[in-house]
Structure formats: structure tokens, C-alpha cells
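Hello Y.,

Per our agreement to keep a running log of every chain we model this quarter, I'm adding this entry. I've kept the format consistent with earlier entries: sequence first, then predicted structure.
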Amino acid sequence: MIIGVVGKIAAGKTTVAKILEGRGFCRVSCSDPLIDLLTGKIEEYSWVPEVPARREPTRDTLIEYGRHLKTTYGGDILIRLALDKKRDCEKVVIDGVRSIEEVRAIKERGGLVVYVDAPAELRYERLRARKAGKDRVITSYEDFLRMDEAEEELYHTTTLKEIADVVIDNSGSLDDLREEVEKLLYLLPKRP
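Predicted structure for the entry above:
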């Protein structure tokens, strides 16, 4: 069982993935292989496409290196690496799915794609509250909107919403989000 979680910056993708992790899924992010390769932590993989010079995994560096890997090894490379990292798990949730090729790779393996949605203002508030190192380049709401638009141009995130199997509205409380994920879990056994 594979569930891919898609959405815009700070929509709640990781929170959904963590809720699923609490329900027995192994959690991995599409950025994990990028971070692992950039920092030299490759022992969890049975294979790696290349080991680059070590670099700090900032949002810009991750985007740049991810683009390079996808161009060189195929648009589904991060899904392949993420699944390899969690190859011993029966149920995997992949956080941070970003492209149509990644969505297709999940669906081709019989997986389910979940899009997490939230308004831009709320996503910006959440981004500021989480204080993640990769977000250091976003210092204002205008920076956030520019980064959001750059990701939209690069990954066509809105299009991914249209082809997702399930859309979860994350504009409410954490309890509301948990309830939505529970509904999703209820539907899983009914999938062919």
C-alpha cells in the first residue's frame, strides 16, 4: 500500500503523513533522498544514482538537485528512491510528492494520491510557525507568494489537485485534519 501526499508549501502534507505514520505507515518524504544524497547518508539505500559533493539542503538546493536528478534519471526518481529507502515496509506514505511523473509512479504501483489544500494566508502562518531550516529564504509573505508561484510553475501543483484520488481541506484545526485522514483510512479497504 502506497499513499502519496501532494500539496502546496505548508498545506499540511507532513502532518497528514505523520498521522498516517501513527496508523502504521512508514513515512518518507520525496525530499529525504535529496537530503540524504546531499549530506552523504546513503546507507539506507540498496542503490543510488549518484553521490554529489556535499551541500547544505536548503529549499533552493533541493529544488536544483531534484531537477538535475529528474532530468538525468527520470521524473519518478525520487519515488523510486523513497520506496527503496522504505523497501521493507508493507504500507508507505510518501510526503511531498510534487510532480505529475511522481503521481503517475505512485498510481502505476497501485497507490493512492491525496492532495492537501489550504489557503495561502494560513499556509504562510504555518510556515512561519514551523521555522524549518529549508524555509530560511522566505522572510516575508511576498517571498512566500513568490516561492509558491515558482513551485506552481515548476511542478503545476494545481493540476495535481485535479488528478488526485482524494482532496483533503486543511483549513481547520488539527482535530479536523485527523478526522479527514480517518475518513481516508476508512475508504482504503474498499479500493480494488
